[in-house]
Design a protein that fits this description.
473 residues; 18 helices; binds tryptophan
């Protein structure tokens, strides 16, 4: 940390949960989970996703929080401590020469990936803003709203997407510039109750539709023949994305935790609430989607079908507005978490003020956002195997970079933190259960998680080879 700066802590214990859940719960649950589930055939994928969330996601989440709490630094500086040792929580230098044990690059890679994800996220959040406004003004002006036209306007108009993404980034900047307690913690504690009430109302409405039984079957009946060689990587990537792990967000959040917090309990609460909310989001969206025949499954799925369907319900205007407000609150909460973790790294590395660091990071995210924002207009001809630039970016970021970063962080934490410090975070009052849990956690961090991630990459690699062989290229 730059000299003399005092690190903010969460104002209340509740503050951490609000921010971690606010950051975990986002477009990943409402926008991405439905289309990835459709792409991978439904129930069996959902099962895989829940399994990975508990067995791989949760231990990694605890590991990231631990790295943050023990180092009191964000991911870049924390991974430097992994190299240098601090004599307390970090094992001192391994016998290998330092150049061969450099973990620092993992921190830098994570922080950079975080910036890229923020940029991509801002573009999709801009879409949500667009639909929110179209829905509202459409109804206000003419009593209805033309879903197809809204999507077309958005697709053809790259500059509109850039404008929307920058408005979204600006809103996130305003919150983050205020600091941890005054900004993120306060914002999330105000937005969360609104969000929860809206979600409950919407799920109740969705489950009362005639299509609900079909949707439930699709979501919960596992048909393993529908899985593809990519499903394992898709499930893992999505777990990392939705729990906000792999790129240091939780390292930052852990660094603001106070001493007494029991990390496994904190991790467990965040994972279970986020997974439940994803399933809830499935219950909300699939009954609505069940009657529709989407033109293509992908990032546009939600926007193609849902606005029109919502408006056709009784009181459609109210439900439509409730849905888009919910979606936008989720998008903003997660973007604030993403921005906060990049800003925290900049603060740790430089002597800049929080305001300056926030604007600098926001500016960089804006520049990176230009590419995805133009993906459906200027870059619409960029295609690989029929997939557009947005699909490609989504895959590279979430199914490629995120699992790789998570793999690096898991190995770094497991091999460089001092066992005694790790154990102290885990074991509660000498209870045998927590001691056992600690052993399991070590095994997952060192062996199970890395092996599963590698296996998922191998399977996906085989899937790519098979696709190219069969399509004769
Ligand atoms: N978890 C958020 C979602 O589901 C997105 C997000 C926020 C995120 N912070 C992150 C993803 C950090 C990866 C890493 O929408």
């Amino acid at each position: 940390m730059s000299a003399g700066r005092k690190r903010g802590l969460w104002g209340t214990r509740f503050g951490f949960y609000l921010a971690a859940i606010g950051s975990a719960f986002g477009l990943g649950n409402l926008w991405r989970f439905p289309y990835v589930t459709v792409e991978n055939g439904g129930g069996a994928f959902v099962l895989l996703y829940v399994l990975f969330a508990i067995c791989i996601g949760l231990p990694l989440l605890i590991g990231e929080l631990m790295l943050g709490k023990l180092s009191r630094k964000s991911v870049v500086q924390a991974s430097l401590s992994l190299d240098e040792g601090d004599g307390k929580s970090f094992a001192s230098l391994a016998p290998l020469p330092r150049s061969k044990t450099s973990w620092a690059w993992i921190g830098r890679f994570s922080a950079f990936a975080c910036l890229l994800i923020l940029a991509y996220y801002a573009v999709i959040s801009g879409w949500v803003l667009h639909f929110l406004m179209q829905f509202f003004f459409g109804h206000l002006m003419s009593g209805s709203y033309d879903a197809e036209n809204s999507l077309r306007v958005l697709r053809e108009n790259g500059w509109l997407q850039i404008l929307l993404a920058s408005v979204h980034l600006l809103l996130s900047l305003i919150v983050v510039a205020k600091g941890v307690q005054e900004g993120m913690e306060k914002w999330v504690s105000n937005a969360m109750p609104v969000f929860v009430v809206l979600l409950i109302v919407l799920v109740t409405k969705s489950l009362s539709l005639q299509t609900a039984p079909d949707a439930l079957r699709f979501l919960f009946y596992p048909d393993f023949t529908k899985l593809t060689p990519f499903s394992m990587l898709h499930a893992l990537g999505h777990v990392f994305f939705t729990l906000s792990i792999g790129i240091g967000t939780m390292v930052t959040f852990g660094s603001y935790l106070n001493e007494q917090t029991h990390l496994p309990s904190a991790g467990f609460r965040v994972t279970s609430i986020d997974t439940l909310i994803s399933l809830f989001a499935g219950l909300l969206i699939f009954p609505l989607l069940a009657g529709a025949t989407p033109k293509n499954v992908g990032p546009e799925l939600l926007f193609q079908t849902l606005p029109g369907l919502l408006q056709s319900l009784d009181n459609g205007f109210l439900f439509g507005m409730a849905f888009f407000i919910c979606l936008y609150l989720a998008a903003l909460g997660a973007s604030i978490g993403l921005l906060e973790s990049v800003v925290a790294n900049v603060l740790d590395m430089t002597g800049l003020s929080r305001a300056k660091a926030t604007w600098l990071t926001g500016g960089a995210a804006f520049l990176f956002a230009i590419i995805p924002a133009l993906s459906t207009s200027s870059f619409r001809r960029v295609k690989i195997h029929g997939y557009g630039l947005l699909d490609i970016l989504d895959t590279v970021l979430i199914n490629g970079i995120l699992p790789l970063a998570a793999l690096g962080l898991a190995l770094a934490v497991a091999s460089k933190l001092k066992p005694a410090s790790m154990e102290a975070e885990f074991v509660n009052d000498d209870s045998i259960a927590t001691r056992k849990m600690y052993k399991h956690w070590c095994f997952v961090m060192r062996w199970a998680a890395p092996t599963t991630i590698m296996l998922a990459f191998l399977l996906a690699g085989w899937g790519i080879v098979r696709t190219f062989l069969f399509s004769g290229i």
